[in-house]
Amino acid sequence: MKKKIAYMLIGALCSIILSYGFVAYADHDSSATTADKPTTASDTYVVPPKAPATPKSSTAQPNASEGPIKLDQLKDLEIKIAGNGLKIEIELEREQAKVESKVEIIRGQAAENHLTGSEAAQFIQQLLDDVKLQENMNKQQVLDALIKHFAIAPAKVEINIEIKLTNRPEVLKYEQEKENEEDNAKVQNVQKVQDDQKVQLANKKQLAQKEQKKALIAKKKALQEAWQKTHKEQQAKKKQQQQFARGDRDDDHHEGKQDDEDDDDDHDGDHGQNESHDHAEHDHEGED
Description:
Elements: H1 2-36, E1 74-83, E2 86-95, E3 98-107, E4 110-116, H2 117-131, H3 139-150, E5 158-165, E6 171-176, H4 181-287
Antiparallel strand pairs: 1-2, 1-5, 2-3, 3-4, 5-6
């Protein structure tokens, strides 16, 4: 019986070993078949090669509109400033290779500059370098730059600027009108009224503060005087009470002394009466 069981166990082990061996062989055979089988386009994905990177320039090229305007970029230029005894006219016109320019600056009765040709062109080039006008500047920036350069009062002058560049079809225009004298006078009058009102309010406030200060001082003085008066009255009353108390003590002392004297007088009178009585008795006995 035991041998039969042992044979059965051995047989089972052998069956298991054979089963594992068969499975391993079948797996190896299928792997080899898959490796030998040709691949199709649907089974694989080919990564495309990367394009060679284009090296970037170390220095970025600035945009033409970001830098100051140069003389060779100007096709037409016209700057006119007039007012308050000042007259400035700057003109430049370019026709292909021919350039015509003119500069005239008058302050009061004296002409500071009156240039033409190459001298005017050099003046305009120097002006562009100093003012640093740019295409992307707005109206106020352009006007402020010229006002600062020529040291003029903006409210008293009229400014007209036209710039046409070789690389732009449109004309850049900047204008500022002279302020109306009447309007300016009205504004000044309104401002003066407002300033006067501010001064009056400040004076009223200062006067009110002074009056308040005086009232506080007067109140403090009145309180001090009232305290002093009350203190004096208390001192006088205290002194009067002390005097009354001293007078009562003196009266009590005087009355006590008078009582003592009255007692002494009574005692002396009784003694005299006794002596008289004794003498009377003695005389009566002698007669007997």
